[in-house]
């Protein structure tokens, strides 16, 4: 198959045919500490989120852990949808596209998983196989929920954290100079 440059650009969803080179010869670098408040705050928020996500671990089992299976919808020996005690559903893109806009979103937990399994089985055919790990709604509500735990010591030992502290000091010095 031969792909022309024009069709290659179109396949990624945008065209660079009218792109123009930016002249950065007169651009000046500024330290983030001297940026406008919106840019500075956005940068600091993003870097803080990056640090926190890097140094956080999931405590407990996520919704899509195999121990949290509620049911599978099986058609012709193939699993076409997997439902979890949380009500979340996992399927192929083809199944998801077919069910788009049709899946019940009311409620949560095993009750939602059951309704969704029935919807998939009724729409696409197939049999609902309830798993041994399926919970009742009450049991699901009483389960401990997975949560994220931030390791503050590890975060504070990260060189990026030290750099952010330096930026905060530089920002304060910059603002003090602006007042003077």
H/E series: HHEEEEHHEHEHH
Alpha-beta content class: alpha+beta
Percent helix among the residues? Answer: 40-55%
Number of strands: 6
Domain count: 2
Task: Please work out how many helical segments DSSP would assign.
Answer: 7
The overall pLDDT, averaged over residues, is: 90
Could you describe the 3D structure shown?
There is one protein chain. This protein has 180 residues and is α+β, with helices and mostly antiparallel strands. The chain has 2 domains: 31-59 and 149-180; 66-141, no CATH class. It is built from 7 helices and 6 strands, in the order ααββββααβαβαα. The strands form 2 sheets. It has a 4-stranded antiparallel beta sheet. A hairpin with a 4-residue loop joins β3 and β4 (89-91). The longest helix is centred in the last third of the chain and has 21 residues, at 159-179. The protein is elongated, with a radius of gyration of 26 Å. It starts with a helix and ends with a helix.
Summarize it:
The protein is of the alpha+beta class and about 180 residues long.
Compile the SSE list and pairings.
Elements: H1 5-11, H2 37-54, E1 56-59, E2 69-75, E3 78-84, E4 89-91, H3 93-99, H4 109-124, E5 127-130, H5 137-141, E6 147-150, H6 152-157, H7 159-179
Antiparallel strand pairs: 1-6, 2-3, 2-5, 3-4
Features:
4-stranded antiparallel β-sheet; single chain; elongated; 2 domains; alpha+beta; 7 helices; 180 residues
């Amino acid at each position: 198959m031969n792909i022309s440059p024009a069709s290659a650009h179109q396949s990624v969803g945008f065209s660079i045919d009218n792109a123009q080179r930016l002249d950065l010869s007169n651009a000046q670098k500024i330290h983030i500490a001297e940026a406008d408040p919106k840019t500075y705050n956005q940068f600091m928020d993003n870097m803080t989120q990056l640090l926190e996500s890097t140094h956080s671990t999931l405590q407990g089992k996520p919704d899509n852990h195999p121990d949290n299976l509620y049911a599978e919808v099986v058609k012709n020996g193939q699993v076409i949808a997997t439902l979890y005690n949380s009500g979340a559903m996992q399927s192929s893109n083809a199944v998801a596209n077919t069910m788009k806009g049709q899946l019940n979103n009311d409620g949560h937990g095993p009750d939602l998983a059951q309704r969704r399994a029935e919807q998939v089985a009724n729409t696409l055919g197939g049999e609902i196989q309830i798993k041994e790990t399926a919970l009742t709604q009450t049991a699901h509500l009483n389960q401990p929920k997975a949560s994220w735990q931030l390791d503050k010591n590890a975060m504070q030992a990260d060189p990026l954290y030290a750099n952010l502290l330096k930026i905060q000091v530089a920002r304060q010095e910059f603002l003090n100079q602006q007042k003077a």
